[in-house]
Design brief:
globular, Lipocalin, alpha+beta, 9 strands, 8-stranded antiparallel beta barrel, Lipocalin-like, disordered N terminus, Lipocalin-like domain-containing protein, 2 helices, signal, single chain, 164 residues
Amino acid sequence: MRNAMTGLALLLALLLASGGAAGAADFPLAGTWTLTAADRITPAGVREPDYGAAPKGRLIVDATGRYSLQIFKSERTGFASGDKKRGTPQEYADAALGSSTHYGTIAIDAAAHQLVFRIEGASFKNWEGTTQRRAYDLKGDRLSYRVPTAPDGNVPVSEWRRER
């Protein structure tokens, strides 16, 4: 009986340490995702690269829906000085336009079939404190979603593959 109680206490301690809720580990977006495409759909309906030919990116989502996302254009210019405080206007433009990073919480609105990003911090300051809803498709370890239409009329599309 004593061994059974010790085992039960250990199991309870492990559950509490892992967050307690059995369903939290079942959050379908939890995991580490690698970017496979960062494109845009133009107003004419043409799909083209938005972050160059070989974009890089990572999306990390924990079991409670907290996330961190980074997308980088591979072809962005490095800083000739080796010091980001001493860049040229073109180097600064490439750094800003060649990356998109933000973090916060993500949820799924199943009824609307949308991801709901509540953005706490972002490289594009205007997004901080906003909520963005994005139509998505999740099939196994493949995730894609459409970002809200940009002021230029383009619709950014991101595609991800979950790492196993």
